[in-house]
Write a structure and sequence with these properties.
The complex is a heterodimer of chains A (about 120) and B (about 110). Chain A is mostly beta strands and about 120 residues long. Chain A has strands at about 5, 10-15, 20, 25, 30-40, 45-50, 55-60, 65-70, 75-80, 85-95, 105, 110-115. In chain A, the strands form 3 sheets. In chain A, strands 2, 5, 6, 10, 11 and 12 form a 6-stranded mixed β-sheet that branches. In chain A, strands 3-9-8-7 form a 4-stranded antiparallel β-sheet, with no helix packed on it. Chain A has a two-stranded antiparallel sheet with strand order 1-4. Chain B has strands at about 5, 10-15, 20-25, 30-40, 40-50, 55, 65-70, 75-80, 85-95, 105, 110. The chains are: A mainly beta (about 120), B mainly beta (about 110).
Chain lengths: ~120, ~110
């Protein structure tokens, strides 16, 4: 069964520092991968997605993610975080077969930004 | 932002009472979903719909039922609420790509006392 692991429950970074949030998936074929962000009290917003092609994908708000098949990873990065990036981040996966697809979410990583 | 609203946004109810949550979309999207969000579990799919009157179960469907009589509305019903159903419930929609690129509503916080 497909699954998504976000090994870091909580990460704290200083404003202006770089950020990397980890996501690992388990699935034999090429998955469709997503990162969502959830600000406090809000719904989830799609940051970026990977379906195929270039393994480095750009998203909104200055985020990017790199798909690494050899490591089964899809880590989210940002070169310089802003206080407004404080939120919870979810990685999600859909297998690429047709029929009975399900979007499976990781348990999330909460990001705290310190001045 | 996708045109998705959820009502009510907050609800407190007692164990054993029925509860219905509503999701309304203005995007004319085919697919609609109900998730619950709990600490340490991320989001888990309860039920989804792939068209009017077409629904199917997700991974945590026990104790929940859904209905979709119009494209724009997807209702989630807890027939007899239990404390384990205290959660934040999110509705999501997606277009022709099925489970891809889902867009989420603002959520409903439900407390069962």
């Amino acid at each position: 069964a497909q699954s998504v692991t976000q090994p870091d429950i909580h990460i704290t970074v200083s404003e202006g520092a770089s950020l990397e949030l980890r996501c690992n998936y388990s699935y034999g074929a090429t998955p469709y991968l997503f990162w969502y962000v959830q600000s406090p009290g809000q719904g989830l917003q799609l940051l970026l997605k990977y379906f195929s092609g270039d393994t480095l994908v750009q998203g909104i708000k200055g985020f990017e993610a790199e798909f690494k098949r050899s490591q089964s990873s899809f880590n989210l990065r940002k070169p310089s975080v802003h206080w407004s990036d404080a939120a919870e981040y979810f990685c999600a996966v859909v297998k690429s077969n047709f029929g009975n697809e399900k979007l499976t979410f990781g348990t999330g990583t909460r990001l705290t930004i310190i001045p | 932002d996708a045109g998705i609203t959820q009502s009510p946004r907050h609800k407190v109810t007692e164990t054993g009472t029925p509860v219905t949550l509503r999701c309304h979309q203005t995007e004319n999207h085919r697919y609609m979903y109900w998730y619950r969000q709990d600490p340490g579990h991320g989001l888990r799919l309860i039920h989804y719909s792939y068209g009017v009157k077409d629904t199917d179960k997700g991974e945590v469907s026990d104790g929940y039922s859904v209905s979709r009589s119009k494209t724009e509305d997807f209702l989630l019903t807890l027939e007899s609420a239990t404390s384990s159903q205290t959660s934040v419930y999110f509705c999501a929609i997606s277009g022709t790509q099925g489970f891809y690129e889902q867009y989420f509503g603002p959520g409903t916080r439900l407390t069962v006392t």
